[in-house]
């Protein structure tokens, strides 16, 4: 009979809890209004029916110090229907006695806003622990209800670090070097970690390390993936969070300061139990070592402020081509290789008037991967030739660059040859372009002479009229006297 009553009571309480949970999806529960110096104040956020996927940092409280966060979850099945709740609890340790105010605040939990009115908290002297004076609950022995002691959490020693790595210590102006930021954990590491707001942290870090005297090619890492690496005689798991290549604009140095990366590090319960949370959320910040890259000036050259720096080769759209005089054709001068592809300029043109060409169409492709920036830049020229001859394009195009591996300037020279056949079109080209030239100049100069003649006669007429007016005025004044 007693067992049956208890079951009914348990089911009734469970139903009541379930109804309350459904009515309030997200709730905030504040701790006691009075705490002792050796006790903790808590803020508990509970979500019903779903996991806690995201939440804002809980507020700071004047007179208290945050002591970490714990998580808990529970599930109930009543009449075949399941309900669940998930909670996070932020602990606050009093620093001194007095009366302190927790102002009203709003949190975003699972992208939903929930508010709390806050409260006044009084901190009193430390006091001895006291067991709750309540009636004996028949379920205490089963669920550990008689154990009012809070679990003790210990910090596990970790074997992890955060690093800023570069692939070169010294470069030339315009030469690229790779930078990556990653969190490393050894295989022997026993401390449990989790990432904490990596997007926000990365935005801050990029603002701190991004040099103002270099072009950045960001590799745009969108997800943090584990990677197995080995160094120092140990196996590590690497979590790369950022990677980019930089191309310095001027000589000197590119400096990267030490930056901090915060991870969630859990403390483990000293005496784990089946119910309740066996780990306590805390935070630890890891710091990278500063780095400096020496940037050397390019050797003397007339074009040293204009040339690209990298490892490049030339790809042409044809080797041999036959065309008729006056017939247009397309020639693609494509630069392929490793370097700052965006900054590549068109090749230099020699004997431009002979090729009858205009500014080229451009096509760009950039690849970022395996620690390098590679790609191609294509310059497409439309060309016409009007004389029967063999044209070697090496006499008309060249592209000068600096090769940092060889530490010298080099030139990409075309190998393509165009065989032009047919009657000369040079006269047609002259007549179709505007005879203009001398004839237009004669007409313009003739007009200039006419205009100058008219201008002379007009000026003489005006001067004569003014002189006549002065004479008449003088004559009238003399006659009046």
TrEMBL record:
Q: Which UniProt keywords apply?
A: Membrane, Signal, Transmembrane, Transmembrane helix
Task: Give yes or no: UniProt keyword Metal-binding.
Answer: no
Q: Specify whether ATP-binding is a keyword of the entry.
A: no
Q: Which residues form the signal peptide?
A: 1-23
Bilayer-crossing residues are 456-478
Pfam families recorded: BatD
Q: Which InterPro entries match?
A: BatD
Stored PANTHER family: BATD, PROTEIN BATD-RELATED
Q: What is this protein called?
A: BatD family protein
Taxon lineage: Bacteria, Pseudomonadati, Bacteroidota, Cytophagia, Cytophagales
């Amino acid at each position: 009979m007693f067992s049956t009553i208890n079951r009914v009571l348990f089911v009734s309480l469970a139903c009541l809890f379930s109804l309350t949970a459904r009515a309030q999806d997200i709730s905030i529960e504040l701790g006691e209004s009075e705490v002792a110096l050796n006790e903790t104040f808590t803020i508990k956020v509970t979500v019903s029916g779903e996991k806690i996927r995201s939440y804002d940092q809980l507020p700071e409280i004047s007179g208290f110090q945050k002591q970490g966060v714990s998580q808990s979850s529970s599930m109930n099945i009543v009449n075949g229907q399941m309900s669940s709740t998930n909670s996070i609890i932020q602990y606050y340790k009093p620093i001194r006695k007095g009366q302190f105010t927790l102002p009203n605040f709003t949190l975003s939990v699972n992208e939903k806003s929930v508010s709390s009115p806050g409260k006044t908290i009084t901190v009193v002297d430390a006091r001895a622990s006291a067991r709750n004076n309540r009636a004996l609950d028949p379920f205490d022995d089963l669920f550990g209800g008689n154990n009012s002691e809070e679990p003790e959490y210990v910090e596990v020693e970790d074997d992890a670090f955060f690093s800023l790595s570069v692939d070169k210590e010294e470069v030339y102006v315009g030469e690229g070097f790779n930078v990556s930021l990653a969190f490393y954990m050894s295989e022997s590491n026993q401390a449990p970690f989790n990432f904490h707001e990596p997007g926000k942290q990365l935005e801050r870090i990029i603002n701190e390390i991004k040099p103002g005297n270099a072009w950045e090619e960001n590799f745009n890492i969108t997800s943090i993936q584990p990677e197995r690496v080995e160094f120092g005689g140990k196996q590590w798991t690497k979590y790369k969070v950022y990677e980019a290549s930089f191309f310095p604009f001027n000589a000197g140095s590119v400096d990267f300061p030490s930056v901090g990366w915060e991870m969630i590090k859990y403390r483990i319960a000293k005496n784990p139990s089946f119910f309740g949370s066996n780990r306590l959320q805390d935070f630890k910040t890891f710091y990278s070592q500063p780095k400096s890259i020496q940037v050397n000036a390019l050797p003397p050259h007339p074009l040293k402020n204009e040339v690209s720096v990298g490892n490049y080769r030339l790809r042409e759209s044809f080797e041999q081509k036959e065309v008729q005089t006056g017939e247009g054709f397309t020639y693609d001068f494509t630069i392929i290789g490793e370097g700052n592809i965006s900054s590549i300029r068109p090749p230099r043109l020699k004997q431009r008037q002979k090729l009858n060409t205009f500014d080229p169409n451009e096509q760009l492709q950039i690849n970022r991967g395996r620690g390098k920036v590679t790609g191609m830049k294509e310059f497409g020229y439309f060309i016409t030739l009007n004389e029967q001859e063999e044209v070697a394009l090496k006499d008309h195009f060249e592209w000068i660059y600096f090769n940092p591996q060889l530490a010298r300037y080099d030139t990409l020279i075309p190998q393509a040859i165009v065989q032009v056949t047919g009657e000369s079109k040079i006269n047609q080209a002259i007549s179709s372009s505007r005879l203009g030239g001398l004839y237009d100049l004669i007409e313009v100069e003739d007009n200039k002479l006419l205009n100058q003649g008219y201008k002379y006669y007009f000026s003489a007429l005006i001067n004569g009229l003014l002189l006549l007016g002065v004479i008449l005025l003088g004559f009238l004044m003399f006659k009046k006297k």
